[in-house]
Design brief:
Blueprint lengths: L30 H11 L7 H8 L3 H10 L13 H15 L5 H30 L9 H36 L4 H5 E11 L2 H7 L2 H21 L3 E5 L3 E6 L2 H16 L7 E13 L2 E3 L1 H12 L4 E4 L1 H9 L7 H13 L9 E5 L3 E3 L3 E3 L2 E5 L8
Parallel strand pairs: 4-6
Antiparallel strand pairs: 1-3, 1-4, 2-3, 4-5, 6-10, 7-10, 8-9
Helix pairs in contact: 1-6, 2-3, 2-4, 3-5, 4-5, 9-10
């Protein structure tokens, strides 16, 4: 696609005229879709995969690995790649040649970026552009509206994406620097929590697709906002479940209870149950793995409705940081001692109640603790 100097792409009556499809286009492809592709990519199709790899100075095997890692389907030897594709290959290969990244790490960079941006792109097209591109006048096609909308939004969305990425990169780098040593940068001690909507499978059979989609979106949005506002990190969402992490147990506990309280106050939402574990976690490509994560998931599955279960390590961490008393009896003794000395009694935000020990598949016998707020010393912080 060729863009004129004005960048308008419109004739005198304001309508956007279709530009001719590239010579390399497949006869079965929609020429208007090709126009939109050219607008978004900012370049026309020029290369087959072999030609792109040769121009970038990389082997076809490595180029294919990068391409698949970014999440794109094999295209044979169709002339479908642009100058930007060549530049991307050249940059990744250059990082490997300079010794800044190993080949495996470069592929991982391509995969993590592809997976993240694929979801973002799907959301923007499905939820964002779809709502903006309803034809305002009878006789206008969606495509006639979509092209100028994309043309106007593209540079703004691109700048915003880069801004958010830089902000997230700075926050993540800060967490790594504070980790203390090299081992903690990969295997860190974190609090990991799962929040799960109760009875979601039954809901899928009773609700219309649109209603179900709105419920899931509301759940994910509310959860993401609460997790971020309280200093946690939303790791991923799984429709009826969210996974989050926090550097300390107190933050994770506050997030869990706020999630339960917020959902309980929303009549449109099902009950929620939360499980949290504390311990060593392996982080890869923005995700978390390990026994601690598995334990948090298992605790969620056995948690009562509108309740939070935690593991022993998490309970001990709350006690260590003075966010919860070792027991109500211990709290009462401390309060009595403080009163005797004319001092203020200690203030705890949370309470812990030991539950029955039970075997958990793959993890042996665990002792869950029920996490609640304390009437004194609780509330916002």
């Amino acid at each position: 696609m060729t863009v004129d100097d004005t960048g308008s792409g419109a004739d005198g009556d304001g309508r956007v005229d279709p530009e001719p499809a590239p010579d390399s286009a497949d006869p079965g492809e929609d020429p208007l879709a090709l126009r939109l592709e050219g607008l978004i990519l900012g370049a026309e199709r020029r290369y087959t995969p072999f030609q792109a790899a040769r121009s970038a100075g990389v082997s076809m095997e490595l180029a294919s690995r990068f391409w698949r890692a970014m999440g794109f389907a094999d295209i044979g030897q169709a002339k479908a790649l642009t100058e930007a594709d060549v530049l991307a290959l050249r940059r990744l290969a250059g990082l490997v040649e300079a010794g800044l990244l190993s080949e495996a790490m470069a592929v991982q960079v391509a995969r993590s970026t592809g997976q993240t941006t694929a979801r973002l792109a799907e959301w923007q097209i499905d939820s964002f552009l779809e709502g903006l591109t309803e034809p305002p006048e009878p006789g206008m096609t969606r495509t006639e509206v979509t092209y100028p909308i994309v043309e106007l939004l593209l540079p703004e969305l691109q700048e915003f994406l880069v801004y958010v990425w830089r902000r997230q990169l700075a926050a993540s780098a800060g967490r790594v620097i504070q980790a203390g040593d090299d081992e903690e940068m990969v295997d860190r001690r974190l609090a990991v929590g799962f929040a799960d909507l109760v009875g979601f499978t039954r809901l899928t059979r009773r609700m219309e697709e649109e209603e179900l989609g709105e419920l899931v979106e509301a759940f994910e949005t509310t959860s993401a906002d609460l997790v971020a506002a309280r200093g946690g990190r939303l790791v991923k969402t799984l429709g009826d479940e969210v996974l989050y992490a926090a550097d300390d147990a107190g933050t994770a506990a506050e997030i869990a209870l706020l999630l339960v309280e917020t959902m309980a106050n929303d009549e449109t939402m099902p009950e929620l149950r939360v499980g949290i574990a504390f311990g060593t976690v392996t982080t890869r490509m923005g995700d978390v793995f390990g026994t601690t994560v598995n334990l948090a998931s298992r605790l969620t599955s056995i948690a009562p409705k509108d309740a939070v279960l935690v593991d022993t390590a998490f309970a001990e961490e709350l006690i260590r940081t003075r966010d919860a008393p070792a027991s109500e009896a211990a709290a009462a003794e401390e309060a009595a001692a403080a009163e005797k000395e004319g001092e203020e009694p200690p203030v705890y935000r949370f309470a812990l109640q030991p539950m029955w020990q039970r075997p958990v598949r793959g993890l042996g016998v665990v002792e869950p603790w029920l996490l609640t707020r304390r009437e004194s010393g609780g509330g916002e912080w």
